[in-house]
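Sharing a chain and its predicted structure for anyone who wants a worked example. Both blocks are below, sequence first, tokens second.
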Amino acid sequence: MTTAISKPLRVMQVISTYPNFINHFYAQNPNIASMDYHTQNEAFARYGFFAPHIVAPYTQELGCVQELTFSNAEPLQRAWLKEQGLSTDLKPGWESDLLRMRIDEFKPDVLYVFSPYTFNSALRDRLTHQPSLVVSWRCATLQNHWDWSAFDVILTSMPSIMDFAPKLGAKSAEMFSPGFPLHLVKELISIPQDTDVVFVGSLTGTRRIAMLDSVAKAAKKYGFSLALHLSGDFSHLTPSMVPYLKQPVFGLDAMRCLRRGRMVLDSRTPVYLSDRHGYPIRDISENDNCSMRLFEATGCGALVLALEGVSRWFDWGKEIVSYKNPQDLVGKIQHFIANPEERESIASAGQNRCLTEYNMKRNAERFMNIVEKKLSKPSVPPKPFEVVAPNEPKSYTPNSMFNEILSNSYLKKMGWFSSYHRQAIVDDSGAPLPWLSYPAVNLLEERAPYGISVFEYGCGSSTLWWAKRARRVVVVEHNEQWFKTMKDQFPDNVRPVLRELETGGDYCKTVAMIKNIKFDIIVIDGRDRVNCAYNCLASLSPSGVVVFDNTDRLEYVSGREFLIESGFKELRLTGLASMVLNVGSCTSIFYKDGNCLEL
């Protein structure tokens, strides 16, 4: 920014961070929850929660009046309420109510709400004080029903989100990168780089898990040092990772651990467009997304090994190093262990680029340039609206609601209660049903013609259901005990096949081994589902459809994408399923024109 701000702008940044970060912070600092608001807030900021994204404090040096707050930290916000002489009793929905109070109290000209799902047009309409500009950030999964009409600007480092932001209602979008706080350099420089390879992050995504498993196996084989500071769902932890597992770290602690790495792994996870249930529709990252870790690690002076893609922020080979797959990554690690001077040269160049171009002072200047550009164009004030209920509000107690749920005729007729009681997939009369989403079951009951040929991956109640409609059902199962249990119940038109389960092995290829039969419906509801999708199409009749269950799961996205790329349309049927209440379920039907379901 080249000119001084003529009138001090009031800039407020609101961070809603992950609950496990907050819990970790207060567990590490047990006495701080009883301290005043200012002390807690300063401690949060120093701890480095989302430090590469926090710009508000740096705008003060540019002549602004600033406020930074962490909106979902309960002890922090209770302290603020107490100091205002207000009740500290936080009721359901307290975060949005308190955020409205905080905005009205500070009266910002520029409101930067870091997480767009914590702010919407209804909340903006309820504000007594209307900011001149409301900004947010997104570089992660989008849901196609989100309302971004409350935002004047969406900041992102992903071009695809630049395209999607207006479709979700945002008035504009701007490319913007994370940065590095320069004040951390003095603290970090004294920490020795004593670990060959470091990873800090969550254990999520099949691509990342495969990468970490390969590196852990290589560390054991070749003897290099490895530290895996993992958080998240440890059910995906592989035996190879266990010896290298370290405690999860966040904020400044994460920076310290990154500094110890001679090399740091940056494994970008795919960014999806999802439906309102959070079920992935397609990958929109296009290998052109960057993580906060990229800037943290380069700023700490480590050589970053990043998954190959588009890097608009650093130069491949000169400032960071790319890898194509786990095998290529292991080879790069071995190369740079054997060539420390080359490693240090690239790491130094990456650090210099980060600290020079992406430090937080420069980012604050970029942020204010965007602000001034947007404020120079008069914006149309948001049109307030009020949701009007057609009926009088209904009073209820938990007991009355529970009784109403139990008497729900839809759940009863579909057999949800019978299934839960029997722990079997049945309708209300006890007859077998497919274990698909109820909307999918309804559609198949209505449209699946009699006398068809069906192939199923995975046997069970659905096999018995299909046997009543189909001329022929072939089903493959991998669990020998379950196979024997079900086999005696199958009628003569069912041909069960037992196959040993091996990823990409005979199980997924069973349908292709059946000669001279084209199936009208192929049901993918067993194991190794992506490979089942890859191997089923040659056995599908010209009017055939593929019924693919649980397509809400990320691990099946590549199977869905394969079917779509093969010319199929996808009908996503989302809702409840037998015995499942805590989450919805999605069954997809893949079809072409002239299909047997007349879709």
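Comments welcome. The chain has 23 helices and 22 strands.
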